[in-house]
């Protein structure tokens, strides 16, 4: 599994907003500048985050984005599921129902399912707050 820039940048956006959370809307241009990410690319990411209830958007003067929840309520897993779609380690695990014609005799399926579960558990147990709280350990997280 490879995490795309969309997933990594979504985490960075939520982290950025969490670090500056004063209940006010933060303009996308400010986030883009601080994170050194194209504003145009961030538009598609924050749109996805708004659509899935991670952010609130306000257009116009004084507008921007703000969090819908506290930083400890955003798991990295939930963010990545929205942006990446799946933690599937192999194609046959991408859908809820495995459609592989070799499923009955597949000797490696358990291996790939196990790896996927480890990945899901790992990301489910890290929150944006964890990254804020423990900057020395957070540097060890690959995002």
Q: Level of helix content? A: 40-55%
Distance between the termini: 13 Å
Q: Tell me the major beta sheet.
A: 2 strands, antiparallel
Judging from the principal axes of the Cα atoms, what is the shape? Answer: elongated
The count of helical stretches stands at 7
Spatially, the strands of the biggest sheet line up as 1-2
Residue fraction in strands: 5-15%
| Count of DSSP strands | 2
Structural class: mainly alpha
Specify Rg, calculated over alpha carbons: 17 Å
Q: What's the overall average pLDDT, rounded?
A: 88
Low-pLDDT ranges: none
Give the topology.
Elements: H1 5-19, H2 28-35, H3 39-51, E1 55-58, E2 64-67, H4 76-84, H5 109-124, H6 128-133, H7 135-138
What characteristics describe this protein?
6% strand, elongated, Arc Repressor Mutant, subunit A, mainly alpha, 143 residues
Polypeptide structure, described:
By secondary structure, this protein is mainly alpha-helical. It has a domain at 5-86 and 128-138: Arc Repressor Mutant, subunit A (Orthogonal Bundle). 50% of the residues lie in helices and 6% in strands. The protein has seven helices and two strands; from the N terminus they run H-H-H-E-E-H-H-H-H. It has helices at 5-19, 28-35, 39-51, 76-84, 109-124, 128-133, 135-138, and strands at 55-58, 64-67. Strands 1-2 form a two-stranded antiparallel ribbon. Helix 1 crosses helix 3, helix 1 (5-19) crosses helix 4 (76-84) and helix 4 crosses helix 5. It starts with a helix and ends in a 5-residue tail after the last helix. The relative contact order is 0.17. The model has no long low-confidence stretch (mean pLDDT 88).
């Amino acid at each position: 599994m490879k995490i795309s820039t969309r997933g990594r940048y979504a985490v960075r956006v939520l982290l950025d907003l969490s670090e500056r959370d004063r209940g006010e809307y933060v303009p996308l241009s400010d986030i883009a500048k601080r994170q050194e990410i194209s504003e145009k690319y961030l538009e598609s990411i924050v749109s996805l985050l708004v659509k899935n209830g991670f952010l609130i958007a306000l257009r116009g003067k004084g507008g921007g984005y703000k969090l819908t929840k506290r930083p400890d309520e955003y798991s990295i897993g939930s963010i990545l599921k929205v942006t990446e779609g799946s933690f599937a380690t192999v194609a046959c695990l991408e859908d809820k129902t495995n459609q592989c014609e070799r499923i009955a005799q597949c000797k490696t399926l358990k291996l790939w399912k196990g790896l996927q579960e480890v990945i899901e558990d790992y990301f489910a147990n890290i929150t944006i707050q964890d990254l804020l709280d423990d900057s020395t350990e957070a540097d060890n997280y690959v995002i």
